[in-house]
Design goal:
Layout: H1 2-32, H2 37-52, H3 57-78, H4 82-129, H5 138-155, E1 159-166, H6 167-174, H7 178-195, E2 201-206, E3 209-215, H8 219-237, E4 241-248, H9 255-272, E5 277-279, H10 280-290
Parallel strand pairs: 4-5
Antiparallel strand pairs: 1-3, 1-4, 2-3
Helix pairs in contact: 1-2, 1-4, 2-3, 2-4, 3-4, 6-7, 7-8
Length: 291
């Protein structure tokens, strides 16, 4: 913010100097020959505008040289005396060079401000996409899951969803240790990101539960990933987690249904008191057997 403010002030100073320079140049041109003031200022303004808003660097120099040639040709047609002709040309070249240099500096400052603005927008986008844990927000998670469903339908490859519940979280909150509970959740999220693949996606579903997307992952690979999460978290932070699993397309073909199935499997794992991993399909089979 400070650098941006400094750059804005510098830009205003450069514009002010350019304006003063053009006014002084106009005064000098008028004092020599009133017929040249309109032409001179028009050409200087042309140089300034195209230099500030140039698209390619070589255009600046071409415009600069062309303006001198145009001014020189017009002056040559006005004057029969070489002294006056070269005096006018010398003054114009000085004014054009001054304008050119200042305009290049202004262009540089404008570019810097644009870069700062773009960087700020990137940062804002980053902050709106990620939460305090550095994980993508849940709405983005659902969008990513939908994208994986579309890709899975095209490639005929499964997509797994894990709902990872931190059992120690509620125990710490009950004891009034909210800060430690949150720290444990942060550590669990970091460990999960470290254990899983770079293409896997982790997000926070609620206070004590993470959601995980495992693209192109079979049931066996999902079981291994869940087991690694459970063991890794237990070893590194001495915390217990339960995992509910749902796999596309066998368990569900829609995002909301997929999440519901994974949450149902998670509830089964938590309520069973012994199962740390539960599959949506297994629960569905048990329900069907009971019926």
């Amino acid at each position: 913010m400070i650098n941006k403010s400094i750059s804005q002030n510098k830009l205003l100073i450069l514009v002010a100097i350019l304006a003063v320079g053009l006014i002084v140049g106009a005064g000098v041109l008028v004092s020599i020959d009133e017929r040249t003031v309109f032409l001179g200022l028009s050409l200087l303004a042309f140089v300034a505008v195209l230099t500030i808003f140039h698209f390619k660097k070589w255009i600046d120099w071409v415009v600069f040289v062309i303006s001198i040639l145009v001014y020189g040709i017009v002056q040559y047609s006005f004057h029969d005396y070489p002294v006056l002709f070269w005096t006018h040309i010398g003054i114009y070249i000085f004014a054009a060079l001054f304008t050119f240099i200042l305009s290049r500096a202004i262009h540089h400052e404008i570019g810097y401000l644009i870069d700062q603005y773009s960087s700020s927008n990137v940062l804002i986008d980053e902050l709106t996409l990620h939460d305090a844990l550095g994980l993508i927000k849940w709405r983005v998670f659902l969008q990513k899951l939908n994208e994986e469903f579309i890709r899975g339908r095209r490639t005929k490859k499964p997509v797994s969803v894990l709902m990872v519940h931190l059992l120690n979280y509620n125990d710490l909150v009950t004891k009034g240790n909210h800060e430690r509970a949150e720290e444990l959740m942060v550590e669990t999220a970091k460990i999960s990101n470290g254990i899983l693949r770079a293409l896997d996606i982790v997000s926070r579903y609620d206070q004590d539960t993470l959601g995980v997307i495992l693209p192109e992952t079979s049931e066996e690979e999902t079981r291994i990933a869940a087991s690694r999460l459970i063991n890794g978290i237990a070893q590194q932070v001495n915390a217990a987690v339960c995992v509910g699993i749902a796999i596309f397309p066998n368990d569900a073909a829609a995002v909301d249904k997929m999440i519901s199935r994974a949450l149902a499997a998670l509830e089964f794992a938590i309520s069973s008191g012994k199962e740390q991993v539960s599959y949506s399909q297994l629960n569905a089979d048990e329900e069907n057997n009971e019926e």
